[in-house]
Design goal:
By secondary structure, the protein is an alpha/beta fold. It contains nine helices and 19 strands. The chain has two domains: 152 residues, FAD/NAD(P)-binding domain, CATH 3.50.50.60; 151 residues, D-Amino Acid Oxidase, subunit A, domain 2 (D-Amino Acid Oxidase, Chain A, domain 2, 2-Layer Sandwich). The strands form four sheets. An eight-stranded mixed β-sheet has the order 5-6-4-14-15-16-13-17, sandwiched between helices. It is globular and about 65 Å long. The structure holds flavin-adenine dinucleotide. The site of flavin-adenine dinucleotide has 42 residues, from helix 2, strand 2, helix 7, strand 13 and strand 17. The site of flavin-adenine dinucleotide (FAD) has 42 residues, from helix 2, strand 2, helix 7, strand 13 and strand 17.
Length: 374
């Protein structure tokens, strides 16, 4: 890069709020700040020519928790914390749909289905016998009378004959989502500066040190770098986790009707215009997938290719595309919203649910920021 004087002056110009990272969380935070406090100068710094982490690389499930996931969460963190996460997902999805509009999201209200493999019999029995408990549990968070129901599995032969269906879930196109959010942020006056890699936060002098001898001063900094957060804030409990995904060509006779997940959400697949998108399996290779490097590996490719054959025999010869994205995870599933010092706020660790909670988190981060500004 060979910045001109004019470019450098623009990039380094002060703003009331600097947001680092232009994924769903960073962009939603900017929109929420500008909705609540029009005229605030907001600058978003992004190293990619595009959001380059998870927000445009995810599977596009608009989901708020399967039964196996809820039971797992309750056993690890108790009912209250589990409910709070469901509530954040639910509120985030309502906000996203209202803000972007279902047409612009390419939203399909196709529902979500939890499947079980024959070897998951114990988990299946536990989930099926807990439907009433889960329906009651999340009613407070969503207001929905009945979320989960048990249905007969007629289409997917490689899975057990009972499944759990949630008609309130759906799917969307993540790039359409981000395009719309980015233009909303720009319309409201946010300056989005791409191609600038921040290498260090100099908190003493309140400066972002960047490649190419760029130094950006900040009064208030909101860090929304999720899976990459440890590169700049190593003491936070957030570590990267790669998720690999494949997409087939359109498949004649593709009978997938909803978004599907199994294994507590670690494996997921859906129909997109007759194609099958399938991803996940990082729990099978925990060490290999604890990385912030993009890429596809032999082990996950084999696992997903075999899974695809179970979902739709013969489909593995139609795989067209592989990619990966980077999540931010930690000991707790709860996202981090934390002041690092008086001038740096972190909003990271979205796990596999940033599409769902991102807009809600944006509101929370904006509220914190505005309180500081006034
Ligand atoms: C394959 C996959 C499938 C998923 N499926 C779903 C799903 O179906 N439903 C769901 O709710 N969630 C899903 N998720 C999770 C969801 O996509 C993420 O939680 C969410 O996108 C995180 O958004 P973010 O804005 O926090 O982070 P990101 O989108 O990762 O954005 C962070 C940004 O910070 C930038 N950045 C980082 N470091 C620097 C630096 N030093 N200098 C400048 N810029 C920097 C990056 O380039 C990036 O653009 C999935 C994730 C993956 C990977």
């Amino acid at each position: 890069m060979n910045y001109s004087f004019w470019e450098k002056k623009y990039i380094q110009a002060p703003a009331e709020v600097i947001i680092l990272g232009s994924g769903i969380v960073g962009i939603s935070t900017a929109i929420s700040i500008l909705e609540a406090r029009p005229g605030t100068t907001v600058k978003i710094i992004e190293r990619g020519s595009w959001p380059y982490g998870a927000s445009t690389k995810n599977a596009g499930f608009s989901c708020f928790g399967s039964v196996s996931e809820l039971l797992d969460d309750v056993s690890h963190m108790g009912e209250d914390a589990c409910l709070e996460i469901v509530s954040m997902r639910w509120q985030g999805l309502q906000k996203l749909k209202n803000r972007v509009g279902v047409n612009s999201l390419e939203y399909s209200s196709c529902g979500g289905t939890e499947l079980f493999r024959p070897r998951d019999k114990e988990l299946q029995d536990k989930c099926l016998s807990s439907l009433e408990y889960c329906n009651k549990l999340i009613k407070d968070a969503t207001g929905l009378e009945t979320t989960y129901s048990s249905l007969h599995n007629e289409d997917l032969k490689g899975f057990s004959d009972r499944l759990i269906y949630n008609r309130h879930e759906g799917t969307l196109n993540p790039v359409s989502m981000m395009n719309c959010l980015i233009s909303k942020a720009a319309d409201k006056g946010a300056h989005i500066i791409r191609g600038v890699n921040v290498t260090r936060i100099d908190s003493e002098n309140r400066l972002l040190e960047c490649d190419e001898d760029i130094c950006i001063p900040y009064d208030l900094l909101v860090v929304c770098t999720n899976g990459f957060a440890a590169q700049l804030l190593p003491h936070l409990d957030v570590r990267p986790a790669r998720n690999q995904v494949l997409m087939t060509a359109p498949i004649p006779g593709n009978r997938l009707k909803s978004g599907y997940h199994l294994d507590k959400g670690y494996v997921y697949f859906r129909n997109y215009e007759g194609r099958i998108l399938l991803g996940g399996g990082r729990n099978l290779f925990p060490e290999e997938e604890s990385t912030d490097k993009f890429g596809n590996t032999t082990g996950i490719r084999e696992f997903l290719t075999n899974m695809l054959e179970i979902i739709h025999p013969g489909a593995s010869s139609l795989i067209e595309h592989w990619w990966s994205g980077i999540l931010g995870i930690g000991e707790s599933k709860y996202p981090i919203i934390q002041w690092i010092d008086d001038y740096i706020l972190a909003g990271v660790r979205m796990g596999g649910m940033g599409v769902a909670i991102g807009s809600h988190l944006g509101d929370k981060l904006a509220n914190e920021t505005i309180e500081k500004l006034t």
